[in-house]
Write a structure and sequence with these properties.
By secondary structure, the chain is α+β, with helices and mostly antiparallel strands. It contains 16 helices and 24 strands.
């Protein structure tokens, strides 16, 4: 190598360096790459007697690369009138019949291209489908769109003797695909439709029927009373060429049916015209439905408020609506919010705004638990306790009448079910068009539940003389069952007579001994049954100067009680709660201090609270169950009845055995820890 070149290598590398810098400086940004292939086009053609057709396409697209934002569809009918509701959905969702992931599609007819093609033919009309949002990503999608065209005006329906030739030319797709399908729905006619194919022989002339090869189009005909349907299937669709379909139908399928000359035909025609759908008439029906819904819900909110206020005032409480504003604007706002919410749920893709308005309507219709007007509970006046027969004290109180918007009443249940049935009919009608919007409409039942399930009778301040009737009646029934001694049952003498007869009939010392033991056992059982026989009465408190009672209690007393026993009473104290008053039962045992009865219940007294009674020289033991249930309350009452019952004469002090024997309290435990 010459020394001159070895010393100066820079000029040899200058030209590649400049080329690299120029390529870096003027490099264009990379663009998204997208490739679309048409895998199929399932077409449905619905033709009426006037020759007007509705064309419905389901195009299967295979997309590779970046998102697809638009697609041009060439070869559509030149007089196409686009229908609303076009969308694109993933292929799997389309097979499942779900529109949850559907993407709305905006269609527009492109301006006609007047330039002739290379072969001299005119260019066909085209549609452009624009996909909302980010477009369609990579995958397989089904594009659904519809439009209307007049085949009669285009000359594609031509009468040929007794039959009519119906021709339709499909779109032009750059990609060929397999199994091209077209379903043609025609008006009913005496002769069924059939496919017609133009085939040629090898010389290019028309072939006779005896020279035809296997048909290129398979057809299936389905007939009904008012429509005939023929399904055409070809094995493939060629690339870059439109498919031409031809069907022969009965010419009478496109002749108007003559109207029968019946009386009142003009009136029937006017009714048919009035029932025919049109955009203006549909808009009028929607407005009328919205006005009816507004009036109905506003009236329900106002009636519920009036009804709840009347009942609350009668119970001595103040009504409290959830939104404390005057009734007239509250009812109007509730109806307006419900109508606006339902409209937004049905019109928008996202149901959040509509659901928020429906929730606002429910809040305007709801009521909180009423608050008693006498805060803190005033001291009640002196009164007297009167015994009342059990059947009279614990009979079912009369039902409240005139309450129609409360789910706890029969009328309220019937009205709520009727309204929910009407809502279910609306949900069923919407489900045919959009299951998503049908689910939203079903959730709007919360607006009805806010009316019927708040401000109930159970939330009003309770009447202590009427509310605990059902509870105390259940406690009395459970106590009787526990003691196994029905009310009013007298001890039977049958065991004694049987024992005497056995003693007289038997001989021998052993027989007499066994018979005497059986007689003593039977007599002891009868004595115990008589000793634990229970008396049940109702105890009403009548305030001085008032004809109405202000409290009801259940009185229990064994017929053979220990000395010093006064009474066993079961009462219910009501405490305020979020959903209404809560009943807290309590069992009271009244005894005389220093009496045998007090000594007998000394161990049980550890589980209760001791206080002075109403009278001098009376001690009260109060027992509260762990849970405010009738079962636990009855267990405490039955244990107290057993404790204050006089033991039968001649009873052995041995502890009974078996499932019915009472258990001794465990060390360190309370005597009736299971119930108190």
């Amino acid at each position: 190598m010459p020394s001159r070149i070895a010393r100066r290598p820079g000029p040899a590398l200058l030209l590649p360096l400049l080329a690299a810098l120029f390529a870096i400086a003027f490099t264009l940004p990379a663009r998204a790459w997208v490739e679309v292939h048409v895998a199929g086009d399932d077409v449905r053609l619905e033709i009426d007697r006037a020759g007007t057709a509705r064309v419905e396409h389901k195009v299967t697209l295979k997309i590779s690369g970046g998102p697809l934002r638009a697609l041009d569809i060439r070869g559509v009918d030149p007089d196409a009138e686009l229908d609303q509701g076009s969308y694109a959905v993933p292929f799997k969702a389309a097979q499942a019949g779900s529109l949850t992931d559907a993407t709305p599609v905006a269609l527009e007819v492109l301006p006609p291209d007047t330039r002739p093609r290379g072969d001299g033919a005119r260019r066909t009309a085209s549609l452009r489908a624009r996909f909302d949002g980010k477009g369609l990503s990579r995958g397989v999608f089904v594009l659904f769109f519809r439009y209307r065209t007049d085949l009669m005006k285009q000359g594609l329906i031509q009468q040929d003797g007794a039959s009519t030739r119906v021709t339709w030319i499909g779109p032009l797709w750059d990609d060929g695909y397999d199994s091209a399908r077209l379903t043609v729905e025609l008006p009913a006619a005496p002769d069924q439709p059939r496919v017609e194919e133009a085939r040629f022989d090898e010389a290019g002339g028309a072939a006779g029927s005896e020279e035809l090869e296997e048909p290129l189009t398979l057809s299936t005909v389905r007939r009904a009373l008012d429509r005939d349907e023929i399904e055409l299937l070809r094995p493939y669709a060629p690339k870059g060429e439109p498919l031409r379909w031809t069907v022969r139908a009965d010419a009478r399928a496109f002749q108007p049916t003559p109207a029968a000359a019946t009386p009142g035909a003009d009136a029937l025609g006017r009714l048919a015209d009035a029932a025919a759908g049109s955009p203006d008439r549909s808009r009028t029906l929607y407005i009328a439905g919205g006005v009816a819904l507004f009036a109905l819900y506003s009236a329900l909110v106002a009636l519920k408020a009036r009804e709840h206020e009347r009942l609350a005032r009668a119970a001595g409480a103040a009504p409290r609506p959830l939104v404390p504003i005057p009734l007239a604007p509250r009812a109007a706002l509730a109806g307006l919010a419900l109508v606006a919410g339902v409209a937004l749920e049905l019109l928008l893709r996202d149901g959040t705004a509509g659901a928020a308005l429906v929730a606002a309507a429910a809040a305007l219709a709801a009521h909180r638990t009423p608050r008693p007007e006498r805060a803190g509970g005033a001291l009640r006046r002196p009164g007297k306790w009167l015994p009342v027969a059990e059947a009279e004290a614990f009979r079912e109180p009369p039902r409240v009448r005139g309450v129609y918007l409360d789910v706890s009443t029969r009328a309220g249940k019937a009205l709520l079910l009727a309204l929910l049935a009407a809502l279910g009919a609306g949900v069923h009608a919407v489900a045919g068009a959009s299951p998503y919007h049908a689910h939203l409409l079903a959730l709007d039942a919360t607006a009805l539940l806010a009316i019927f399930c708040t401000g109930r009778l159970a939330e009003l301040p309770p009447d202590p003389a009427a509310r605990p009737v059902a509870f105390l009646r259940d406690v009395a029934r459970r106590v009787r069952r526990t003691l196994k001694a029905p009310a009013g049952a007298a001890p039977t003498a049958a065991p004694k007579r049987a024992a005497g007869a056995a003693a007289r009939a038997s001989t021998g010392t052993a027989a007499r001994a066994s018979t005497g033991a059986a007689a003593r056992a039977s007599a002891g059982a009868a004595a115990r049954a008589a000793a634990t026989e229970l008396r049940v009465v109702g105890r009403l408190r009548i305030p001085d100067g008032s004809p109405d009672a202000d409290e009801l209690r259940l009185g229990l007393a064994p017929r053979a009680a220990l000395p010093g026993f006064v009474a066993i009473e079961v009462g219910v104290v009501y405490a305020p709660g979020a959903g209404g008053a809560i009943g807290l039962p309590e069992v009271l045992l009244r005894v005389a201090p220093g009496s045998p009865c007090e000594a007998a219940v000394e161990r049980l007294a550890r589980s209760g609270r001791s206080s002075r009674g109403r009278r001098p020289g009376e001690r009260v033991l109060a027992f509260t169950p762990r849970l405010p249930t009738a079962r636990m309350t009855a267990a405490i009452a039955a244990a107290l009845v057993r404790a204050v019952t006089t033991p039968p004469a001649g009873a052995t002090p041995t502890k009974p055995h078996g499932a019915g024997a009472p258990r001794a309290p465990r060390p360190g435990k309370k005597a009736i820890s299971a119930a108190a």
